[in-house]
Amino acid sequence: MAPFLAYEDKGPDTHRVPLVLVHGHPFDRTMWAPQLERFPGTRRVVAPDLRGYGASPTIPAVTDFSAFARDIEALLDELEVESFVLAGLSMGGQIVMDCYRLFPERVRGLVLADTFPAAETPEGVRTRDAMADRLLAEGMRGYADEVLERMVAPYASAEVKAHVHGMMTATAPEGAAAALRARARRPDYSALLPRVSVPALVVVGADDTFTPVSDALALHAALPDAELHIVDGAAHMPNLERPDVFDQALEEFLARVDARQPSPAPPRL
């Protein structure tokens, strides 16, 4: 059966733990372009387009936030990826937390970048619902223009800005709106964090205004076994703005997770 989601599946099956990359809103798997270039040289890397984003189908629309996690689980089942490190940024980080809530036995490590665990406030629900209405009525361009220099820092390179703006404007408004409504009603993951039994890496851009450093500090404090990296010279997307720094932190974390593995993974046929 063909997988429901569009995806990248790169790199060899080795003794190293596979890495699964979950993008944020309103992006697609190309958000991870620097990491998809670097890490498949040493391990298998899977990066899906979430439902409603990129080349994945918009219909049926997501109505419950956990559907994102179940889509990822189904894709990894289809690809025969049994255990893995899950990395997510912003909404992707919240989806990663939902994956851990639903199938923790498969997760060997968590990477939580520029994200936070709390459920939405009543005001936040109204704001996300209003934005969903706006995207359906107006399309993505106006929103993309407004938030570009919060997604990445005003001083980010023109190339990075163009990439981020292009992802946002290419996103289907129907998919983005459905995700906003589902995200507005997501559960609170705060009680889950102290029960996380695998290593975690928390990363945040020093100039992030969507999920500021204070959110990352609280996230780091709640996890039993976590490292924290604050990336200078970056806002909400340090993996694109400072891939050298982000990738070094991720490389070191993955080596730590690899060292904990009980035995080599079987080769992929």
Describe this structure in words.
Keywords: Hydrolase. GO terms for molecular function: hydrolase activity. This is Alpha/beta fold hydrolase. It comes from Streptomyces massasporeus. The protein has about 270 residues and is an alpha/beta fold. About 45% of the residues lie in helices and about 15% in strands. It has 10 helices and 7 strands. It has helices at about 35-40, 65-80, 90-100, 120-140, 140-150, 160-170, 175-185, 215-220, 240, 245-260; strands at about 5-10, 20, 45-50, 85-90, 105-115, 200-205, 225-230. α1 (about 35-40) links the parallel β2 (about 20) and β3. α5 runs antiparallel to α6 (about 160-170). The longest helix has 17 residues, at about 120-140. It is globular, with a radius of gyration of 17 Å. The model is unreliable at about 265-269 (pLDDT under 50).
